[in-house]
Design goal:
alpha+beta; four-stranded antiparallel sheet; 11 helices; 61% helix
């Protein structure tokens, strides 16, 4: 019997994207109040054997979150500006992916490394070095989330993030996908990208401790080359946790990631819930009616 597919997605500008087995659906609130619904089939890399293979799938998910995430963000921006027909160039998407990846690595991997190196004369243990670096990395991420959470537009974005989680939680509970039934569900979810981020922080501490204390250029190189490895193991932790939420031990291990979600989610209003539910209903419908859909053992990480 094929394993159950777990839906997930991400918030976009005035909307929500939901990812299914073979397609993704983005629902965006138009300036005039109506809904724009965009359906796109997923390429083979996002639905093929690599997306179902342990460890490899974590790297694919990282690529998926960045590439598909930027595509849906650009689409939602066009809808918000009433330029829905504007074409999204492939080179622009990859350029934005490259820039966002470079900024993320510089801010959350290079900066903690260089700040920790300032204490180098006082550190003789690679484990202690990695723990301090991990603490600085976590502090920078939390500070970043707190600061951007003060921006009104980001607050609305985080509310759509909360709407996405409520919709997925309700679907997994088996209740009707209607606003009244979904409203009571939590804005936190075990497979959230924020939890994935926290898991990466912890795994990075362990992995970088094994790197030791080589020369600075080797440490810089390790922070770049080992990122896919860390993402791969991080996804497996989230993947396992999403299927064992009935375990008190698993819930305790993943609890800090859920706490961190308080910074990236807000309580949505009913109109935002309506948008998230529209996307989820459509992608579920596509999976149920598309004859070409193959059994999948993967899960989507919600951002």
């Amino acid at each position: 019997m094929a394993k159950k597919f777990y839906y997930g997605g991400q918030a976009v500008i005035e909307g929500v994207m939901m990812r299914g087995q073979k397609a993704m659906v983005t629902a965006v609130r138009r300036p005039g109040g109506g809904l724009a619904l965009d359906t796109r089939l997923l390429g083979g890399i996002y639905s093929g054997w690599m997306r179902r293979t342990p460890l490899i799938r974590g790297v694919i998910v990282l690529i998926e979150v960045m590439v598909l995430g930027i595509k849906t963000l650009l689409y939602s921006a066009n809808v918000s500006l009433e330029e829905e027909e504007a074409e999204i160039s492939g080179w622009l998407v990859w350029l934005l992916v490259a820039v966002s990846l470079a900024v993320s690595v510089a801010l959350f991997f290079m900066a903690p490394l260089f700040l920790t190196k300032l204490l180098d004369p006082y550190i003789t243990s690679s484990l202690v070095f990695s723990l301090i670096e991990g603490f600085i990395r976590a502090a920078l991420i939390i500070l970043y989330l707190v600061v951007i959470g003060l921006v009104p537009d980001i607050k609305r974005y985080f509310a759509y993030h909360g709407a996405e989680h409520k919709a997925v939680n309700a679907y997994e509970a088996g209740v009707p996908l209607e606003v009244e039934a979904v409203r009571k569900y939590s804005t936190a979810h075990v497979r959230c990208g924020t939890s994935f981020l926290f898991t990466i922080i912890i795994i990075a501490i362990i992995v970088f401790a094994f790197v030791g204390l080589p020369s600075l250029w080797l440490m810089v190189l390790s922070r770049i080359l080992l990122l896919p490895v860390i993402a791969a193991f991080g996804y497996e932790v989230i993947y396992f946790g999403g299927r064992h939420t009935d375990s008190a031990l698993v819930r305790a291990i993943l609890a800090p990631g859920r706490w961190l979600q308080r910074l990236t989610t807000r309580e949505p209003d009913d109109t935002q819930l309506e948008v998230a539910l529209s996307a989820l209903r459509k992608v579920v419908e596509l999976d149920q009616t598309e004859e070409a859909v193959q059994p999948s053992t993967s899960a989507s990480v919600s951002s």
